[in-house]
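Support request from a user on the community tier.

User writes: "When I paste my structure tokens into the form, the page sometimes reloads and wipes my input. The last time it worked, I copied everything first. Here is what I submitted, just in case something in the input itself triggers the reload:"
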């Protein structure tokens, strides 16, 4: 365990050099497509249509934008390092996902209290994590698409790093990620006054599974 804590601590220095360099490369790769994608986003926001449909289109856009991180991202299909942590989404997005996967989302009650980050741990897999892989990958929530680690591997996403955070240990090293950008603002605009909750509240783990 001490070895992994030492590796986490050592990662800080490596990231100081890496993150500005890869951020620049991602920005350069994205720049030619940015005006067209941002115009598309504005059209989604301006068009009439259901909020559910808008959320689905914003999900697709965020996947497209984040694809420019490419090889610089630690996140790859099949990695589930962050799938035991809190996964927040709006009621509208939960309804959209539920519709897509054929499993109606729970409607959150007015007295629902969102969980705290530290309520999650090694034994709290996402409802849709099956055999260490996302079973609804094509329909996964906005947050799963938008949260892209710029590290070289999932070391900092592991619970050892969160243990350091909980303990207030200075070796804790935050996961470096891309700026959430205008897509998050657009998502929040569409979500409006929706209740926001963890994926497990909308889709409780149980015999029905994913
Ligand atoms: S929806 Fe899929 S990608 Fe997102 S946390 Fe759950 S298992 Fe992981």
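"...and here is what came back when it finally went through:"
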């Amino acid at each position: 365990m001490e070895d992994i804590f030492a590796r986490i601590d050592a990662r800080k220095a490596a990231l100081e050099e890496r993150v500005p360099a890869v951020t620049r490369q991602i920005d350069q790769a994205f720049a030619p497509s940015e005006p067209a994608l941002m115009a598309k986003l504005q059209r989604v926001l301006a068009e009439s249509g259901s909020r559910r449909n808008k959320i689905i289109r914003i999900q697709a856009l965020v996947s497209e934008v984040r694809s420019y991180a490419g090889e610089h991202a630690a996140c790859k299909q099949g990695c589930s390092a962050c799938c035991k942590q809190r996964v927040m989404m709006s009621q509208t997005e939960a309804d959209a996902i539920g519709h897509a996967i054929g499993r109606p989302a729970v409607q959150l009650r007015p007295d629902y209290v969102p969980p705290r980050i530290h309520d999650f741990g090694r034994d709290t897999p996402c409802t849709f994590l099956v055999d260490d892989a996302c079973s609804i990958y094509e329909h996964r929530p906005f947050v799963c698409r938008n949260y892209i680690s710029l590290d070289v591997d999932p070391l900092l996403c592991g619970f050892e790093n969160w243990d350091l955070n909980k303990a207030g240990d200075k070796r804790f090293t935050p996961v470096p990620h891309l700026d959430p950008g205008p897509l998050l603002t657009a998502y929040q605009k569409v979500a409006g006054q929706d209740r926001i909750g963890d994926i497990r509240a909308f889709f409780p783990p149980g015999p029905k599974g994913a």
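Agent notes: The reload is a front-end session timeout and is unrelated to the input. Strands lie at 88-90, 129-130, 133-134, 196-198. Residues 80, 83, 87, 126, 128-129, 134, 136, 140-141, 144, 199 surround iron/sulfur cluster (CB under 6 Å). Escalated to web team.
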